[in-house]
């Protein structure tokens, strides 16, 4: 797998370099994609805003083609397209970089790293976010450039029964993300982390293949997971204020004119503001829809958050020590002050 990805990276560099050398200020076509098929998803609002803004700023000199899940619903497909030059910009989770030699990005996956959206923004828009952009640029040879930090809201556990403490997760098979630090957390809670493709999760919950899952209100609501027996109870564990990356090939970006870069950068800022605003707005709207549809919610105030943090913080400390990221962890923690 690693050899395949590295090979694709080389191909991507060649394709991006060729594309960059062939464009001019009057002719640049960008392909921007994310993996969600619903146009109600915040990612969709974000990339639509990017298209509108960059085409407006450039007076049509830059044209943008959008793909809402049509280049692939799995993020690995989007990353491959970006590497090969078949996509110009994609939205993706950071975790894929661990398989290509950037274990530091798993820091984004540490649970209970952030206490609120305000804390998340302060860290990602501040010293920590800037430092992580440099880590990714250096470790990938500029093949991946973080253009902005997006979010898919805050993730909660939803299952066949309410979860108010780690003890309630004992023996539950929970569909989790593939991140090792996240799997370590759920194992320490007594759960059984299970891998299920996103597009197959509704059926897995419906048929009892898994006892539950974890995701944000908007994504679980748009896929009707709360309408299954094993997704019926949503518990506001708020364990993961998520980070998603708006990525571009850095070598391609560096080959653009200063004017093109300026247009793109300004459009990225507008798109990021839109994506975040929609995410925060949809948190409440999606929660209300889940309740309206009959889903039962255990509120954050009724969760034993301290018990979950007692499990999460040692995992954070261990990860930081093993990956020489102690200073980065302190940046995040200090951002909350």
List the helices and strands and how they pair.
Blueprint: H1 2-22, E1 28-34, H2 42-57, E2 62-68, H3 75-84, E3 89-92, H4 117-124, H5 127-139, E4 145-150, E5 154-159, E6 173-175, H6 180-188, E7 192-194, H7 201-206, E8 212-215, H8 217-222, E9 233-241, E10 244-248, H9 250-254, H10 258-292, E11 296-298, H11 305-322, H12 326-335
Parallel strand pairs: 1-2, 1-3, 6-7, 6-8, 9-11
Antiparallel strand pairs: 3-10, 4-10, 5-8, 5-9
Structural notes for this entry:
The protein has 337 residues and is α/β, with parallel strands linked by helices. The protein has twelve helices and eleven strands. It has helices at 2-22, 42-57, 75-84, 117-124, 127-139, 180-188, 201-206, 217-222, 250-254, 258-292, 305-322, 326-335, and strands at residues 28-34, 62-68, 89-92, 145-150, 154-159, 173-175, 192-194, 212-215, 233-241, 244-248, 296-298. Strands 7-6-8-5-9-11 form a six-stranded mixed beta sheet. The chain has a five-stranded mixed beta sheet with strand order 2-1-3-10-4, with helices on both faces. It is globular, with a radius of gyration of 20 Å. The model is unreliable at 1-6 and 13-26 (pLDDT under 50).
């Amino acid at each position: 797998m690693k050899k395949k990805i590295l090979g694709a990276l080389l191909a991507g560099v060649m394709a991006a370099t060729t594309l960059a050398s062939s464009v001019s200020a009057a002719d640049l076509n960008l392909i921007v994609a994310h993996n969600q098929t619903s146009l109600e998803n915040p990612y969709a609002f974000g990339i639509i805003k990017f298209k509108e803004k960059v085409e407006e700023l450039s007076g049509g000199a830059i044209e943008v083609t959008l793909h809402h899940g049509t280049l692939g619903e799995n993020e690995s497909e989007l990353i491959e397209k970006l590497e090969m030059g078949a996509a110009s910009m994609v939205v993706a989770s950071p975790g894929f970089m661990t398989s290509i030699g950037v274990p530091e990005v798993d820091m984004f996956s540490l649970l209970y790293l952030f206490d609120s959206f305000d804390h998340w923004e302060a860290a990602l828009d501040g010293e920590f976010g800037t430092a992580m952009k440099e880590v990714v640029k250096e470790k990938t040879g500029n093949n991946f450039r973080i253009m902005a930090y997006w979010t898919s809201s805050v993730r909660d556990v939803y299952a066949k029964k309410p979860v108010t403490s780690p003890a309630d997760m004992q023996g539950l098979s929970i569909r989790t993300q593939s991140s090792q630090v996240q799997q370590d957390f759920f194992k320490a809670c007594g759960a059984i982390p299970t891998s299920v493709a996103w597009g197959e999760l509704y059926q897995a919950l419906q048929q009892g293949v898994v006892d539950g899952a974890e995701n944000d209100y908007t994504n679980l609501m748009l896929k009707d997971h709360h309408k299954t027996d094993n997704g019926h109870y949503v518990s506001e564990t708020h364990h993961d204020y998520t980070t998603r990356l708006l990525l571009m090939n850095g070598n391609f970006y560096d080959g653009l004119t200063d004017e093109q870069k300026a247009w793109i950068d300004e459009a990225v800022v507008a798109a990021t503001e839109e994506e975040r605003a929609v995410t925060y707005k949809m948190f409440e709207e999606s929660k209300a829809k889940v309740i309206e549809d009959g889903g039962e919610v255990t509120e954050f105030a009724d969760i034993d958050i301290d018990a979950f943090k007692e499990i999460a913080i040692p995992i954070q400390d261990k990860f930081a020590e093993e990956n020489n990221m102690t200073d980065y962890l302190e940046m995040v923690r200090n951002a909350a002050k």
